[in-house]
Structures are given as structure tokens and as C-alpha cells.
Q: What sequence folds into this?
């Protein structure tokens, strides 16, 4: 009888034990679903080497060169958003053709020094980096860990070389922050001198496009512009969407609205009969503060032939939409600070 009990025990389960096993199985399934629905947040990182800083975020990465504080790459979900010429020279001497060079203290030709100033050809230093807490719109319950984003702050101060061109003491700080489908840049200028100075500044953003003829830029209608192709002639923009079929080099003053740039990155025409839900159209929205002017540039065919660090066909692969303070100089008194920012936001549409 004792042996009979022993052999039957594993084969006979009470209702209570069956319920316990069922509950345990349910808990296990729920745990798996919870992990799948709420995966652990990806690790943010800031990698620094001798010549560059790489920020890695939840959906992309950005590369910032210490030479010129030039952002040379920004990828979202593996897709490159910025244009960098195949002939760009990364020798820590020449200005880099592409990405987002920083223009200071002069936009354009300069009697005192190089075209577009010295900031884009100077060596910057890293003064701060890490993970910042980014605001999440409409989600006040999100934890700091959920909203942490990688950033780096670079600095440029006056030196013997800069004072030989421009006799002022200054400090520039440039913070690059990588967010979800968003790249934020923040520029601070401090007058460290005992006398005032004037300057112009601009973020010379090169946006990668598959075909320049398909690109449009919004937010410019009704603005007065200076047309550098026509020798500085003035005009008023009448188009809701600015497109490109020839060389364009215009400075739009008082461009206070966002700009939406269409057909960027990996955009492609939708084929007739294509019912796929895969996004075919990417846009980039340029949001800015403290940068009241916008420069729009594409050199087109003939002008590109005269630019040594552009391949002849590369005019077709980019458009520059440049947020700046360039229509009139900005004045800074001793001890005064000026700051401005630009946010680039990418989105895909079907």
C-alpha cells in the first residue's frame, strides 16, 4: 500500500496543485510580455578620441570633429541625414566640406581673415559631456533615466592666432545633444574683453538629398532676401515652397518661422501600384532661436566645378539651409553673453 501511494503520487494532481501551476505559467508569460513591451532602455554613450566625439543615442548617432566643432555625421535608424563630400579634407587644417560647420566671427568674405571666419578651422576642446535629461513633451511622468540623452560641449577661446586677425578676447561654447530623431545644437558667445565687439554667426548645415530637383524649403514666403548669385540684388520671396533648378545663394532676413525641407535622406518616389506601408518620404524641420536669418544655398552645375572639395555631380546630393545671425552684426558689450540654438527634426512619411 505504501508502494502504491508512492507510484501514484506523481500521476495524480489535486485541483489546488493544477491551479498553482497554471498561475505560475501565467505569471511567466506576463513577465515575458512585460519585457517585450517595456524593453530596457538602450545605453547612451559619449566616445572621445584624438580628433572626434561620437554620441550614441536610442535611435542613432552623431559625430563631431574637434577641428572646427564640425558635425560630420548624424544617422537616425542607420540613415544618414547630413551630407559630407566624398572629397572633404579631414586634415585638421582645411574647413570641412559638409556636415554642420560653425561660422564665426564673420559670415562670408572677411578682410581680416579667412572666408567665414576662424571658428570652423580652429581646434576646439571638450569641456563637458555625459547624459542630460531631455524634456519629453506631454509625458511629465517619465523618469529621468527614460529621458536621458547624450551631449557634449566644446569650447573655443581667443588665442594669439585669433587675436592676430580679430583683436578681442572671447569664449565660444557649443553644445551638441542627440535626442530621438532630433539633433540639437546650442551656441554661446561670451565677450571676455574690456571693449565691445561685433560679429556674425551661422550654422552651415548641409542636408543630404537624393535629388536636388525634388527638394523644397518652406517658411520663406514674403521675406526680403539678398541674392548673392545676382551680385547682392534685393528681392521678396513669393513662393510658398522654394525649389531648385539653378544655382541658389540667398540670405533671407527675419526668417522667424520653422523651415521644412522635403525629400531628404533616403526619400524615393512612390511607384504606381506600390501599396507598401514602408515610408518613402523624409522631411527635416529646422527650428531655431536667436538666429533670425536663413541662408539657402546650392551651387548647381557650373559653380560646383570651381569648388575643389566637391565632386562635379555632388551638387545634386545636398541643399544647405543655414540658420544664422548674418543680415546685420550682433553687438556684445564687455561681459555680455549671446546665445542661440537650432533643432533639426527628421520624420518619415508614407
A:
Amino acid at each position: 500500500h505504501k508502494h502504491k501511494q508512492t507510484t501514484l503520487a506523481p500521476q495524480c494532481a489535486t485541483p489546488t496543485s493544477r491551479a498553482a501551476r497554471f498561475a505560475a505559467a501565467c505569471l511567466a508569460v506576463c513577465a515575458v510580455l512585460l519585457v517585450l513591451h517595456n524593453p530596457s532602455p538602450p545605453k547612451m554613450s559619449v566616445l572621445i578620441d584624438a580628433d572626434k566625439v561620437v554620441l550614441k543615442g536610442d535611435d542613432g548617432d552623431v559625430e563631431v570633429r574637434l577641428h572646427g566643432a564640425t558635425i560630420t555625421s548624424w544617422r537616425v535608424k542607420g540613415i544618414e541625414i547630413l551630407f559630407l563630400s566624398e572629397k572633404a579634407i579631414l586634415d585638421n587644417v582645411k574647413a570641412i566640406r559638409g556636415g554642420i560647420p560653425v561660422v564665426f566671427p564673420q559670415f562670408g568674405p572677411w578682410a581680416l581673415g579667412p572666408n567665414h571666419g576662424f571658428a570652423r578651422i580652429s581646434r576646439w576642446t571638450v569641456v563637458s559631456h555625459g547624459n542630460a535629461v531631455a524634456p519629453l513633451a506631454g509625458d511629465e511622468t517619465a523618469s529621468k533615466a527614460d529621458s536621458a540623452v547624450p551631449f557634449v560641449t566644446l569650447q573655443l577661446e581667443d588665442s594669439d592666432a585669433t587675436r592676430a586677425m580679430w583683436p578681442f578676447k572671447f569664449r565660444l561654447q557649443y553644445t551638441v545633444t542627440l535626442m530621438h530623431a532630433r539633433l540639437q545644437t546650442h551656441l554661446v558667445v561670451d565677450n571676455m574683453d574690456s571693449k565691445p565687439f561685433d560679429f556674425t554667426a551661422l550654422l552651415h548645415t548641409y542636408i543630404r538629398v537624393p535629388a536636388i530637383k525634388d527638394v523644397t524649403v518652406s517658411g520663406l514666403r514674403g521675406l526680403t532676401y539678398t541674392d548673392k548669385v545676382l551680385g547682392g540684388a534685393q528681392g521678396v520671396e513669393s513662393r510658398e515652397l522654394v525649389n531648385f533648378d539653378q544655382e541658389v545663394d540667398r540670405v533671407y532676413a527675419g526668417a522667424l518661422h520653422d523651415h521644412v525641407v522635403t525629400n531628404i535622406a533616403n526619400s524615393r518616389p512612390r511607384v504606381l501600384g506600390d501599396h507598401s506601408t514602408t515610408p518613402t518620404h523624409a522631411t527635416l524641420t529646422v527650428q531655431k532661436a536667436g538666429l533670425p536669418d536663413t541662408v539657402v544655398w546650392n551651387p548647381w552645375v557650373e559653380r560646383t566645378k570651381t569648388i575643389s572639395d566637391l565632386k562635379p555631380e555632388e551638387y545634386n546630393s545636398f541643399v544647405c539651409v543655414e540658420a544664422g545671425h548674418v543680415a546685420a552684426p550682433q553687438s556684445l558689450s564687455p561681459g555680455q553673453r549671446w546665445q542661440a540654438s537650432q533643432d533639426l527634426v527628421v520624420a518619415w512619411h508614407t
About this structure: The first strand starts at residue 45 and ends at 48. Residues 1-15, 136-146 have pLDDT under 50 and may be disordered. The helical segments are 2-8, 15-37, 160-165, 300-304. The first helix runs from residue 2 to 8.
